[in-house]
Design goal:
450 residues; alpha/beta; five-stranded antiparallel sheet; 21 strands; 27% strand
């Protein structure tokens, strides 16, 4: 490297510490007062010379060699709407204790420009720390430079080191939430997470085997022929009916762009789809997925293969919302053509006014004639907060609360109207979407509606 390039690189990585400016200010004050107090004048010059020598020593100490190594360790992928860890490790190869300021250039999606971590590292030691990030959008996230500013105990100058420019990590639908419900679905304590135990009806079961009667078995399952042959009570054992087709349908129109707690309704629906699909596959059902607005965006046929969940995850990764109206007629025609057998259809959409539901009612009823249709739409959490206000101090607040109650009442009317025509419904807050959707699926399976 040429001398000129080295000089440019030196000045680009040289930063002055706050202590340097404090010392300059102190020397300036000494020179100011030396105008009236003469003996302060040589003291000021002595302080200036000492500062200059300390400045040179500090520069030599931190710029002598490349004596620090830093790494940013990112997970293979981020989980949307969840806290994801980022690990930073810094190794000190200097022969003395260093003081470090770490500034990580986070992706633009986080809109965070005040990241700063301060620490000290002893000679030949490695310091690791972790911080958490919570993405609220799917897609590619690019990290910039990992900037490490090193200073010695003198703390007059800082040297900047830059590492790992342009690291990229993809943000996928919430697989953390999926794993959480996967665990709870097979655990005896599922009620703690809000999952309900549904009483199962025998007619929905498939015969599995004949076994010895055990106290507590349903007497209706006693196999009298096998009992007479064996000379002891024998019962039929049943299992859940398997390989039923289940489809999640995601409305990607403008009604799903509404934000709640930093996350859009569409992302809540996508996270819920992933968690629900995992549960359905664990129960050996075939799972498929559609997304639509004015056209069919994604169409994944139902399958029960173990690798199918990864296909669903990859499909959900690129689902986007548009500022367009949904074409339910197109959805009905597509399902009629592509889904010939009776299936469970879980439709994630949103209706803020009953007139919006009435416009699509003819298509929903047509779908419900052949399939088990579950319409999942959302409570307006902000309106619920207004309704729950206890102290009303002005006429405008009375008006706002009245309007909010009217909207909430219309949501309940929509539920009753859908149920009156044999359409299953889930009216839920965005935060409880996954739990309530899984509960509805378990309920339908247990009652044999499919």
């Amino acid at each position: 490297m040429k001398f000129r390039d080295k000089l440019i690189q030196f000045f680009k990585s040289l930063y002055l510490h706050q202590r340097f400016f404090t010392a300059i200010f102190g020397i300036a004050v000494i020179f100011l007062f030396s105008h009236w107090i003469n003996f302060l004048y040589p003291i000021g010059w002595l302080a200036a010379v000492l500062l200059f020598l300390a400045f040179l020593i500090d520069i030599i100490a931190v710029f002598k060699n490349e004596k620090i190594v830093a790494k940013r360790k990112l997970p293979e992928k981020f989980s949307n709407s969840d806290e994801n860890p980022v690990v930073i490790s810094i190794k000190n190869n200097f022969g003395f204790k260093i003081y470090v300021e770490v500034i990580d250039e986070l992706p633009v999606q986080f809109q965070k420009r005040d990241f700063l971590k301060q620490l000290s590292i002893l000679p030949n030691e490695t310091n690791r720390f972790e911080y958490l990030v919570r993405p609220v959008e799917r897609g590619e996230y690019f990290f910039g430079n990992l900037n490490v500013y090193v200073s010695s105990k003198i703390k007059l100058v800082k040297r900047r080191f830059s590492f790992q420019k342009e690291q990229m990590v993809k943000v996928y639908p919430s697989f953390i939430q999926m794993k959480k419900y996967d665990f709870l679905a097979i655990d005896n304590r599922i009620q703690l997470a809000g999952l309900k135990k549904i009483r199962k009806i025998g007619q929905t079961m498939e015969f599995e085997q004949i076994k010895d009667y055990v106290i507590g078995d349903d007497l209706r399952t006693v196999n009298w022929k096998a009992t007479a042959k064996q000379g002891s009570l024998m019962t039929n054992q049943y299992q859940d009916e398997k390989s039923q087709s289940v489809y999640t349908i995601i409305d990607t129109s403008r009604v799903m762009k509404m934000p709640f707690n930093g996350l859009r309704l569409l992302d809540y629906a996508i996270n819920s789809t992933l968690a629900f699909s995992n549960i359905a596959l664990k129960k050996h059902d075939k799972v498929g997925m559609f997304s639509f607005s004015n056209k069919i965006d994604k169409a994944l046929p139902a399958s029960s293969k173990k690798t199918h969940l990864q296909l669903i995850l990859n499909s959900l990764y690129n689902v986007k919302t548009q500022f367009l109206d949904s074409d339910f007629g197109l959805l009905y025609a597509h399902i009629k053509r592509r889904v010939p057998q009776r299936s469970l259809l879980i439709l994630f959409t949103n209706f803020e006014h009953i007139s919006a539901l009435e416009r699509q009612f003819v298509y929903l009823r047509a779908l419900a004639k052949k399939h088990v249709l579950v319409v999942v739409f959302f409570e307006n959490s902000e309106l619920e907060k207004i309704i729950d206000q206890e102290e009303i101090k002005s006429v405008s607040q009375v008006f706002e609360q009245t309007v909010a109650e009217q909207f909430s009442y219309e949501k309940k009317l929509m539920v009753k109207e859908l149920q009156r025509h044999g359409i299953q419904t889930v009216l839920t807050s965005p935060e409880e979407l996954s739990i309530n959707t899984i509960n509805k699926y378990l309920q339908i399976k247990a009652k044999g509606l499919l």
